[in-house]
Amino acid sequence: MEGLSLDLVVLQLFTGLALGAIYVLLALGMSLLxxxxxxxxxxxxxxxxLGAYVGIMLLGVGFNFWLCLLxxxxxxxxxxxxxERFLIRRxxxxxxxxxxxxxxxxxxxxxxxxxxxxxxxxxQFDTPDALVGATDIGIGYFPTYRLFVIAVTFVVLxxxxxxxxxxxxxxxxxxxxxxxxxxxxxGIDVARVWLVVFGIGTGLAALAGLLAAPLQGASPEMGxxxxxEAFVVTVVGGMGSLVGAVIAGLLVGVVVAMTSLLAxxxxxxxxxxxxxxxxxxxxxxxxxxxxxxx
Amino acid sequence: xxRIEKLQAWYGPSHILQGVEMQVGRGEIVCLIGRNGAGKxxxxxxxxxxxxxxxxxxTFEGTSLLPLPTHRRNALGLGYVPEERRIVQGxxxxxxxxxxxxxxxHKRREQDVIAEIAETFPRLAERLDQDAITMSGGExxxxxxxxxxxxxxxxxxxxxxxxxIMPVLVDEMFALFARLRDEGTTxxxxxxxxELALGIADRAYIMDQGMIVHEGPxxxxxxxxxxxxxxxxx
Lengths: 294, 234
Description:
Helix content of chain A: over 70%
Oligomer: heterodimer
Radius of gyration of chain A: 19 Å
Number of strands of chain A: 2
Shape of chain B: globular
Order of helices and strands of chain B: EEEHEEHEHHHHEHEHEEHH
CATH architecture of chain B: 3-Layer(aba) Sandwich
Strand order of the largest sheet of chain A: 1-2
Number of helices of chain A: 11
Number of domains of chain B: 1
Distance between the termini of chain B: 32 Å
CATH topology of chain A: ABC transporter involved in vitamin B12 uptake, BtuC
Radius of gyration of chain B: 17 Å
CATH topology of chain B: Rossmann fold
């Protein structure tokens, strides 16, 4: 372990948290959709990719990055709303495989559309000027933009928590996740709630894609690999659990970062090794309810 | 008020209701009794839009219910307390009650509702912030009833409210039903405890194999040991 100073490890830990923050945003959306709608959203990676490209589009028509942070989730979330309203809604109650196949197909359509409009080669996405450079975090310099990604994620988490725990709408969503039937009996139109949940889930994926773009650029396929990783996070955290998504997201990010420090060639594999270990010990994941899939 | 005609219902391939005819008048307590599997629960679920396929006619104050989704039926003034109570796990007593108020059609202030609950269900008022699922079966049943009542339904349907509850609480609950009726709420009650149910009901229907086989004033049925023996003994 020569040359591995504590500072380097701590800096790498922060790198892992920034990567984890992206996972968290993606996995939160997936977990919301699965926990409440029992939809395994295979298009989640495509919505993530769409986030980056809608960002590029909005920047192109004169928006700045800060406005994009607000408008990208709104625009892509609206696309999500339309998909739910006109396609996915027809498949509720038909088991888990129908929406899975539908969203799988949707992801191909979205990727192909982006290829047609923006071309097949990746595009560069500049880090906003204010966030270029590095910030001294006490133990060394750390890229400012990555700190920003971590901060945005925590703000979003806070807002989501307030929304779910402190608003009437959040109460309906929490109750609807446990027992949609009683919510209907009490006079609430659950379909409208699902619509909102779908919008939130896809909006979060888009935000993740936008935040990731300055780190790795944008390409039509950027959602494909991260979809698998986000699935791992969702499964490790426990399908349907939001707390699980947060903890597992950060954990997976840190594990990847640490593995890249020690054995870079193992970084990708480490994600799946972690999942295998967790599933062997705890098949429902950290916070999952046992038997949810059956 | 509630008129059920030629109601048929299916769960998958099984034909559960085979032409149910019933009426509930304003201000009545009507009870629906019969053996397990006779179709009592399915009748209530059908009225609420929760059964499988249903045909025939169900009207509530003249509005045809069968084409409406469940939440719209609630908005018309139909309350329903299912047999399993369906207290939402992980929510406090207060949040469970709030759920009853959230539908846009019910505009009542939460404080007023809580004050009312404190009067009618003192035990619930003491436990507002407790996780509702940790309460006893009887308390959960009270909560389920209170939650259905906060929106002030015109007709409330209760499925086996006395099931698995201490006798002293059952008496308290039935006293409450009588009071609700006196205050103007109409009640449709499905109950295994036949004597108790007939004791407070105005009229009763007896159901067997998906059809109404007998109807009459509750007092007359209470006195008719033969009918009770034939359709209600387990």
